[in-house]
Amino acid sequence: MKKNNIKLLLLSLLIVLYACDEDLDINDDPNSPPAISSGLALSAVEGSLVTVMGGELFNLGGIYAQYYTQSPGAGQYETIDTYNINVDYANRLWTELYAGALNDAKFVLDRSEENGETGTYLIATCLQAYTYQILTDVFGDIPYTEALEGQNNLSPMPTNGEEIYLDLISRIDSAVAQYEQNPVESSVGEQDLIYGANMNRWVQFANTLKLKLYMRMAYTSQNNSAEVLELLNNGNFITENAKFDAFVDAIDKRNPFYEVQIATTGLGDVNNVASNSLHEFLESNSDSRLEAIYRPNTDGDYIGIDQGDGITSNFSNQTATDFSRPRISPLTPVYLMTIAESNFLQAEALARYSGAGQAQAAYNQGVQESFALHNLDVTEAQSLTGTGGAYEFDTTASTEELVEQIIIQKWVALAGVNNIEAWIETTRTKFPELVANNPDYSLGRRLVSVTSVLPGNSIPSSIFYSDNEVTRNSNLSQKENLLVKVWWDQK
Predict the structure, then answer these.
(1) Is the pTM of the predicted complex or chain greater than 0.90?
(2) Among 241, 289, 310, 358, fewest CB within 10 Å belongs to which?
């Protein structure tokens, strides 16, 4: 863990902001007074992003990706588990990302451009692009082209997600090119809480983020094999997990999910229990990641619940402690991207555009990196992916079957690591396969929540815009329901 006191002070402030009820307009910029430094503003960008990614979106993604489900004996997240969240749900996270992360990133971009700091400009570009990517993947069309104009435009028009994606790639390319042509190292140093202003790491992050954006477009007309193959040929992807680990085991200085969902006095550790969708997949395949992702019940046993079934009367005499629960500790890092995710992105790209043999190597490495992230013996991963192993890669399969193998393992690797990314990927690829009843969990299957309020076998494709923003922004109309698709959801 880096030992910079600003991290602890910043995180304390952000956890307080995360828990408060005050909502700000996305055009306000309360975090960037004129005298603030680029380094402190960059810390604030990362802090706001981590607060949401490791907090509300971690919880939402955990349930929607079917890692967790609502426990019996409590009911705080019944609306999520029944696919019935309301228009107020996103108020806080929308504000934190727009008025916090994006506005602060704009300040850093403007300041670093004025000062000719191409390194800092690249870092801020990566963070702002990542934040916009999360927002448009979760909400769909969002304010982008006209956003962050302050009092000059209080009702920014939403921009089509496809246009946002293409512009994000262009902006990343431009920032990398500017840095490579005039490599001015960033002056923010340890105030960059992710990579400590190591520019080689940030160039790798930029390349990996671009690959993610390109692979998100795989089922669309923007599918671009040439650009993907060029990225693969260059091969300069992350070699160190992009994570925020500036936590200490003290109130308001701990992992956001732990702080809110587990440690909260009288309210914590009573809502989230293991969903059988992932729990049974790991258990049936004798995968030791089961014990890294979940804690056992009070008897030391690992037991899950079918998605949504905890809300029914089937477990009326039981509570969360009777089941496996998320293994998130006070010091668990919040991950933006991991080496494992990078390898699965490469594996999918190779499966689609190159060959199954090359995809297999990246797939195997992705499984190994997932085990390594949890500090587990990678020889188990090698055994599982080896000849005759439960996760052996079938190179004779069709392209879509190759993708299914890759995404199921990516789904496992993201569990308890980057939950919202997992839900986004299940939405894009439709893997693990979604079934209405009697799933064979050992194969990697998801179950439509047994208490779903949506028609048929559907699950949410996006979430409602912040009601506060819709009320204030005359150019943003609330979507009809949670079935409205994000632009890349075309499979």
Answers:
(1) yes
(2) 358
